[in-house]
User: Fold these one by one.
Assistant:
Number 1:
Amino acid sequence: MRAMQEPLMEIYARLFAHFGAQHWWPHSEGGAFEIVVGAILTQNTAWANVEKALANLARARLLTPTAMQRVAPTRLATSIRPSGYFNLKAKRLKAFTQFLFAEHRGSLARLLALATPDLRAALLGVYGIGPETADAIILYAAHQPIFVVDAYTRRIFARLGLARADAPYAELQALFMAHLPHDEKLFNEYHALIVALGKNLCRKTAPRCQACPLRGLCPADLSIPRKRVIMRPAIFQEFRSRI
DNA sequence: GCCCAGGTGGGTA
DNA sequence: TACCCACATGGG
């Protein structure tokens, strides 16, 4: 039997073996700006709806900072209607381009070249950009190693017994940042795999534990009769004492 | 018809 | 600080 890896790497390895590479924004047609727009549009929204909105924006030639800065808010809202919260998100996209022109001469590249702490602080100062969106931009558009936490991450790692269900964003993020190498490619793939697991198997209701690649690691495994659940998997024991 | 989705900001106690 | 709520479309 091979040597046991760190729990977080063991989980990653299992997810990757099960789902394979997710190819999140590897070279994005629309470039970094499309990634930023996608990160804002996907807030509390299924990605399939975001794709429709992005297609509308591309067709309307609105996927550039300049075009988005110039377009009327109502027209922008109409384009992104399929992504939901369209009035709100139009306002957020406008706030971002406004910020880009006011602070960085309209150059996204200039913004994304900032060091991680400065970039994050700048992004968090923009209306409509919170920690998850900021980190998604830093990781997927700026290609800087920062771990993106989302609702799936919280749910999955709470079920695994490695985080509290109400753990604040920063605490969850610190869990990963403290125990994984700061590798952009790893963080990219890990987050995408968490989304794949949360969306397909570790669902909020009716999770498919039977088919889960983390079966055997998870105390919440619903495919195990309740009275048979005895204790936390051994590989988490020592790990938990350190987190 | 009902639930859920890759959150965030604003208001109230 | 700690909740509670608005924001909205589309797929299962």
Number 2:
Amino acid sequence: MNISDVAKYAGVSKTTVSRVLMNSGLVKVETRDKVLKAIREMNYVPNTSAQMLAKKHNKIIGVICGYDVSDPFFGAMNNYIFDACRKCGYLALFASSNGESDGCDDEIAMLYGKVDGYILCGQKNNLPKNVEKIIDMKMPVALFKIKYVKKGAISVDIDNRKGGELAAEYLYGKGYRKIGYMGSVQSGFQESCERHDGFAEALSQHGLKIKMYFEAKRDNRTAYKFADKVIKSGVDAVFCDTDMMAYGLVYALQKKGISIPKDIAVLGFDDVHFLNFEPAVLLSTVSQPMQKMASCIVKAIIGKIEDDIPYGESQVFDCRIVERETT
Amino acid sequence: MNISDVAKYAGVSKTTVSRVLMNSGLVKVETRDKVLKAIREMNYVPNTSAQMLAKKHNKIIGVICGYDVSDPFFGAMNNYIFDACRKCGYLALFASSNGESDGCDDEIAMLYGKVDGYILCGQKNNLPKNVEKIIDMKMPVALFKIKYVKKGAISVDIDNRKGGELAAEYLYGKGYRKIGYMGSVQSGFQESCERHDGFAEALSQHGLKIKMYFEAKRDNRTAYKFADKVIKSGVDAVFCDTDMMAYGLVYALQKKGISIPKDIAVLGFDDVHFLNFEPAVLLSTVSQPMQKMASCIVKAIIGKIEDDIPYGESQVFDCRIVERETT
DNA sequence: TTCTGTATTGAAACCGCTACCATTTAGAAG
DNA sequence: CTTCTAAATGGTAGCGGTTTCAATACAGAA
């Protein structure tokens, strides 16, 4: 069943049916109703590929994620992106490279022709090359939470440095003076470096230094193992620049009988909803406006797709402290 | 740039290029090489929509999930499905209804025309109606881990009852005799009911009964709150029919100074990899062969899509015990 | 040399929809 | 009752592939 059948049934031309379908507005009201009735009665759904072929786009945005989606933080992130797309009538087609492959050439190729634009998120190798490639293909690209500014590519991120400052100010304000930092600066995680810099700088404004730095991976497993070192270091608060770390640490400290936040306070970063199950770990954290950010990037890329709107190339969002029970 | 350009460049007809593209085999070797060379040199990629329009399919499978994807178990599940699709040259297009809406009519409609078949997974309302609807649309449907058998719909699941039995036998074998059960039988979760039945039955074979039943939601939060009740009940082991529950319980018990498994053993169900971070909670559990299952369902539905292969309508997999440190 | 059969190739129709342009219709103005 | 203009509708050419069917080439057989 196709548009011609509907046209025949409604006693009009294909063109008119198409116009009704597209809400083009130049159809007499009664004709429109006749067509709509036919569509309803025949249970007709237009063929997406044909539309795409004619219109040159799909209403699908490709999302290439360089992370493990079973990590609640990223799972939630994908959800936000999905919802933002849906609100605009788009679908999100996810492809995860799991950060394994060298770059994400495969993923880009897999999605090519099926999507109207690409959102890249998470850590990946060869990022510049990949972005370049997508731009060469004349496809819209947007970078979500990636530190890389490139003319022609939309970019949405938080101000990590400011986030770090915020954390430091907060802990200082609460009276903590022997403050530790857990992050992944040495392994070169940009976001960690920036948060660290902001944090250190803000502390130094108060004449303080980071009492002890703990280099961990960005997960709960390694953070967990640091419990003893943290205790021995004599800090009264630790800022973990990822909730997953904070979470692992809190868990380990609690198990060792440390009272949180009385003995040691813990502050996270990300606000991973899934982890904050009452009453176990009501983690204090630096929260990112993920929903707004997702909505922003999706709208920007759709603007680019549909109207080639010149968008603000780079959007930076602020974080805020969410005080719960670990500080 | 399109197939005609390539044809012109290579000095052959569109048809020949198309044949090369499709590996149809009726092209002379040297012609084929010529065409391949042209394709390579021009960096040509065929237009997916056009292919789809002509061939009648997309190489995309729609996955409608009625759960929260930021739950690590489901996040991982989606990953397995994605990988299985990719191995077969397909893409998975996820749409999550988050179990909120009445059924998943919206999701089915959103994906219509973009996908070659549907995989439904997770709890949802109005399941039979939705399955019926998809069958009426003449689209392949497959049900993943859903208890509903319908002629015309592929179904892949584990044997939950047997899983329950396995758990009981295992705990009994380890010498536990005062065994508790935490599940969602009263709220009517099919999978929980079946696991519970199998568990209870296997215990009764040994002249035992479930010492205490705890009705919880299928997450860590509520399970956490049961710690006191569990302790007071005097059990020496608890079988939680979901890892998330087991996890919440273990956490709470440890925090209260209970030694696991010496004082109380805990056995989970699902084998959620993400939660098993060393050395915090190395949860003993009933593991499902998720990877195999995902691969099975994807192959079945692709068979249906491509060759209308009469597939085994219903596949049931077995679980196995994974012993770690909580038993 | 001519004929027959098979291996290659190409022309054109088609997939279902949109977009451009032409045509018809209706209503207002003269 | 024309004439003119704007609104409504229809015809048809793409979009970029695949597929059917016909045409050609070439080999071996008669």
